[in-house]
UniProtKB/TrEMBL annotation:
It catalyses: a cytidine in rRNA + S-adenosyl-L-methionine = a 5-methylcytidine in rRNA + S-adenosyl-L-homocysteine + H(+). It comes from Rotaria sordida. GO terms for molecular function: RNA binding; RNA methyltransferase activity. InterPro entries: MeTrfase_RsmB-F_NOP2_cat, MeTrfase_RsmB-F_NOP2_dom, RCMT, SAM-dependent_MTases_sf. CDD domains: AdoMet_MTases (cd02440). The lineage of its organism: Eukaryota, Metazoa, Spiralia, Gnathifera, Rotifera. It is found in: Mitochondrion. This is NOL1/NOP2/Sun domain family member 4. Pfam families: Methyltr_RsmB-F. Residues 171-486 form the SAM-dependent MTase RsmB/NOP-type domain.
Length: 487
């Protein structure tokens, strides 16, 4: 509470308007505030400043740790190529270097010890929140208004009423952003208005726990993903080619395997990767279960070329021609053109790409792309709705992003399922009617528990799972949600 009053007083002196719902979360960090009043001009600087403004509201005291990981080198994993002639040799070499197959990691003692640590951290978080609430109440009782006369002179009655209305339990699921301050430019203003309108209800989609009996230790023999243990920051050597010109392994973000595990592809399934480029997740799908018909689609020309390059470098031409179909088209139209056609659909949508945004000079936080970023959740929702329409009844759709923003994660899932349940345009034999499509979210808690040693999962997601970057195992961010189409 003292910090809130000090911050209000400081901002009043500088003639800056600010909403109290933001001040509530502001905390000093080495005598500096966690947001700046003057932002940079480059898009990666704008991205970092926007993250520093928005994410402390969601992740609270965990944000500095997440921020450090985002600004550090990511930790890759090596997806072994089963078609490479040097497969056996490279597997032995990776083991000798100290890496482990994260899909087959079976050190139960290490798992149990780590789960105990995570439980202690969770209990500590709860104790911390309770302690802070008690401190705030005690400060109100002891200080009252008489000790803060000078600071209160600059606070009008309207602001005091706003403070009283702040909900102490407000968290990421409501994601109510503050009103934009005067000195924030248009890039902040539009984004904040967009997110202020997004409220995740959290009770409109049914959640089932069908995966709780699934044995995650049963992994197909063709699928191997190697990484170094926690706190080991070793790097893999550049991949090499064999006599056939095929790479021996493919490096990527380790969190990318989680949506593939959730997808649960079985032999002879027809599978659609709706936004496939650059191809890492599609490659995991194919190595996980080679006996499938895989359709990979992307609309972006340069990314689609990268997708073709990845597959031609890792899969023999005859196998590629037999089992993989590479398509260039608008993912939003798949649901209309090929309704109820696929057993499994992965839709890894374009997003703000939080980690990528911090290292790229021209990203979606560029001032020239303001409108594109504001319209991004609507575009993501259209892609997810198209993916669900393209999925067969009883089939599985996995939605994923590489952002921490709830408006692009749970918000999109909830809105898409709500929209499809109310009305869904369907054309059949010249007749156009409105037929609802019902869906349910499948819990991924058992998956989180099994892979908790390698990934840090956020505990407060309403739908799906969110991997938080952490310096000891710097994967993510990655959000994924498993959805079943019922009818």
């Amino acid at each position: 509470m003292i910090y809130q009053k000090q911050l209000i007083h400081l901002l009043k002196k500088r003639s800056i308007q600010i909403n109290l719902s933001f001040v509530r979360y502001a905390r000093p960090f080495k005598k500096k505030w966690m947001f700046s009043l003057h932002h940079g001009s480059h898009s990666n600087e704008l991205a970092l400043e926007y993250f520093d403004f928005a994410y402390p509201l969601i992740f609270h005291r965990h944000w500095p740790s997440i921020r450090l990981a985002l600004l550090s080198l990511p930790k890759p994993v090596a997806l072994l190529n089963p078609y490479s002639l040097s497969n056996k040799n490279i597997k032995q070499k990776l083991i000798e270097q100290g890496s482990v197959d994260m899909l087959r990691f079976d050190n139960e003692k290490l798992r149990e010890d780590f789960n105990l640590i995570q439980k202690q951290i969770s209990n500590s978080d709860n104790e911390y929140q309770i302690k802070k609430l008690l401190e705030q109440k005690e400060n109100r009782r002891l200080l009252g208004t008489s000790d803060l006369v000078d600071e209160q002179e600059d606070i009008n009655e309207e602001e005091e009423e706003q403070e009283e209305e702040i909900n102490e339990d407000d968290d990421m699921n409501t994601f109510n952003q503050p009103e934009p301050v005067k000195r924030l430019d248009e890039i902040y203003k539009l984004a904040l208005e967009q997110q202020a309108q997004s409220v995740i209800k959290g009770n409109v989609v049914s959640i089932v726990d069908d995966d709780k009996e699934r044995d995650y230790r049963k992994i197909p023999p063709s699928w191997h993903v190697y990484t170094f243990p926690r706190s080991n920051m070793s790097r893999f050597e550049p991949a090499k080619t064999d006599e056939l010109g095929l790479l021996d392994y493919y490096c990527m973000d380790g969190a990318c395997i989680l949506p593939i595990i959730a997808l649960d592809v079985q032999p002879f399934h027809s599978v659609l990767d709706l936004c496939s480029a650059p191809g890492g997740k599609a490659l995991n799908i194919f190595h996980m279960c080679p006996y499938i018909q895989l359709t990979c689609n992307d609309i972006n020309g340069s990314r689609w070329k990268r997708l073709i390059e990845v597959f031609t470098q890792t899969v023999p031409k005859d196998t590629l021609a037999k089992h993989v179909k590479l398509v260039k088209g608008d993912g939003c139209l798949f649901g209309e053109r090929q309704p109820a056609s696929f057993d499994r659909v992965l839709v890894d949508v374009p997003c703000t790409s939080d980690r990528h945004a911090l290292i790229t000079a021209f990203n979606i936080f560029s001032k020239k792309r303001i409108q594109e970023r504001v319209e991004l959740p609507a575009y993501q929702r259209k892609l997810l709705e198209s993916a669900i329409r393209a999925c067969k009844p009883g089939g599985i759709v996995v939605y994923s992003t590489c952002t921490l923003a709830p408006v692009q994660n749970e918000g999109v899932v909830e809105q898409a399922i709500e929209n499809l349940a109310s009305t869904s345009n369907k054309k059949s034999r010249g007749y156009q009617g409105k037929v609802p499509i019902k869906c349910e979210v499948i819990s991924t808690q058992s998956l989180e528990k099994h892979y908790a040693y390698f990934f840090d999962f956020y505990a407060k997601t309403r739908y799906g799972s969110l991997v938080l970057p952490h310096i000891s195992n710097n994967f993510g961010p990655l959000y994924f949600c498993k959805i079943r189409r019922i009818n």
